[in-house]
Amino acid sequence: MSTLVLVEHEDGEIRPATFSVIAAAAKIGGDVDLLVAGSDASGVAQKAAAIAGVNKVMLADNAAYAHELAENLSALVVKHAGGYSHILFAATAAGKNVMPRVAALLDVSGISDIIEVKSEDTFVRPIYAGNALATVKSSDAVKVVGVRTTAFDAVAEEGGSASVETVDAGDISDKVSFVGQELSQSDRPELTSADIVVSGGRGMQSGENFSMLDDIAGKLNAAVGASRAAVDAGFVPNEYQVGQTGKVVAPDLYLAVGISGAIQHLAGMKDSKVIVAINKDEEAPIFQVADYGLVADLFDALPELSAALDS
Amino acid sequence: MKIIVGVKRVLDYNVKARVKADKSGIELANVKMSMNPFDEIAVEEALRIKEAGNADEVIAVSIGSSQSQETIRTALAMGADRGILIETDELLEPLAIAKLFKHLVEKEEPGLVVLGKQAIDDDANQTGQMLSALTGMSQATFASKVEFDGDHLKVTREVDAGLESIKVAMPAIVTADLRLNEPRYAKLPNIMKAKKKPLEVIAVADTGVDVSSGLSVVEVNEPPKREAGVIVKSVAELVDKLRNEAKVI
């Protein structure tokens, strides 16, 4: 039994999600090998080789891997999939894009977004926006799996001494090309790995008012998130969205401000350790999951909270 | 050019899913079912592409029980030209669904297949990617904007850090994200007209597609419940609790 993990990286750094996927691989047992695909990625491969518990790192260095295009990554993974019993991906936008292709090319069912490894062939995954947990068993020869990263504690970035082996690129598609990207700039910690998340909903009323949340997030070293309603209303860009169809977070503290608590939002944050809700509607469903609730107008409460955090 | 658009009948998004007592699945008897919200967006996009003159025909396809005909009728009422139901009473995995779509792609030869990025029941987010892998058609997932550029599509995609755009050759598969568009409501005269539009029903067995799956559901459980918390009276009390009781700040 052995597991192959596709490493996600950008700007020469391994993304935090990958360390959680390796933790899931360790729970399955057997050797854990990593595949690094990138343009000029030997530095990333060296970092990957230093991760605790890694057996071997395969490096495919090719300009075609610069932008995580699914066609190229899936062909590469399938080319080097021989002999592996499990192939794991992070359930990130990039991982979700590639994982099902790999499964289909290997003619097996993909298993999305697992939150628990019961055994080498049995996994638990949320369905219906997290309102039910399905235990699924795979009899496929290769288990192709997406891992919900918030459900597994990251492995140590250091302590390993795996070998790095250069491998051939897979087929490169001429049907797809990268055009450009618009990334939002933020000094805040990354949403899915932050210890504290401060989120705003429709109650924030405008994008400008999110500066009140930025202020509090700055004092708590927190990331800023948002409900779908706030994103759809154009208050903040879509990468802030926490929920079934946005990002899933499980921080130590989740502060929901002006968020009613729709099913779709709860799916993205209800595994947070402590949930705090500030809402003027005492009937809002968010209070049913909040550890601490404050029924108040957020425009009064946020400045007070900001001042209280200074003291 | 033809467009195939996939529509799935799912538990309505406003209804809270209840786990069956025997843990075999979710209670779906006598609960409101609707078109998967992402599929409504897919239908709307297909219609807009046709209205802009970039397509001649929109075919709404569903795979599921005979009641999925209602979901296809909804797509026809929105403006799709005809429907195809591949009928099965089994709950199929995305791989089987992708293989059935491939069967239709080979038959209908569409220039574009538009699907939702995920169904809100199984939350798999797999079918579009699998169909692309099986057919060799280009893949553009989580789309928030689709633009035609000759025989290519320029697609803006929602990724974790923001937006990215890619250019893909046609024929292509696009999976719709929430912000792609605002789906229209079907008007009553269109609902009446939709009843007369052609809807072909094909049995899974007649497609010759192998829909067996290596994946089985052992059981379905309720997630752990969160204990109800306390309501604090002031910001000062809240900060005190977070500092001294929960110790999270």
TrEMBL record, chain A:
Stated family: Belongs to the ETF alpha-subunit/FixB family.
GO biological process: fatty acid beta-oxidation using acyl-CoA dehydrogenase
Pfam families per UniProt: ETF (PF01012), ETF_alpha (PF00766)
Source organism: Granulosicoccus antarcticus IMCC3135
Subunit structure: Heterodimer of an alpha and a beta subunit.
Function: The electron transfer flavoprotein serves as a specific electron acceptor for other dehydrogenases. It transfers the electrons to the main respiratory chain via ETF-ubiquinone oxidoreductase (ETF dehydrogenase).
Name assigned to this protein: Electron transfer flavoprotein subunit alpha
Residues that coordinate or bind FAD: 202, 227-228, 241-245, 258-265, 279
Keywords for this protein: Electron transport, FAD, Flavoprotein, Transport
GO molecular function term, any single one: flavin adenine dinucleotide binding
Co-factor(s): FAD
Cofactor details (free text): Binds 1 FAD per dimer.
Domain called Electron transfer flavoprotein alpha/beta-subunit N-terminal: residue spans: 3-182
Alphabetical list of InterPro entries matching this protein: DHS-like_NAD/FAD-binding_dom, ETF_a/b_N, ETF_a/FixB, ETF_alpha_N, ETF_asu_C, ETF_asu_C_CS, Rossmann-like_a/b/a_fold
Gene name for this UniProt entry: etfA_2
SMART domains with a match to the protein in the record: ETF
Alphabetical list of CDD domains matching this protein: ETF_alpha
TrEMBL record, chain B:
Keyword tags: Electron transport, Transport
Start and end residues of each Electron transfer flavoprotein alpha/beta-subunit N-terminal domain: 23-211
UniProt cofactor(s): AMP
Coiled coil residues, start to end: none
Signal peptide from the UniProt entry: none
SUPFAM superfamilies linked to this entry: Adenine nucleotide alpha hydrolases-like
Molecular function GO labels: electron transfer activity
Protein's job: The electron transfer flavoprotein serves as a specific electron acceptor for other dehydrogenases. It transfers the electrons to the main respiratory chain via ETF-ubiquinone oxidoreductase (ETF dehydrogenase).
Name of this chain's protein: Electron transfer flavoprotein subunit beta
Protein source organism: Granulosicoccus antarcticus IMCC3135
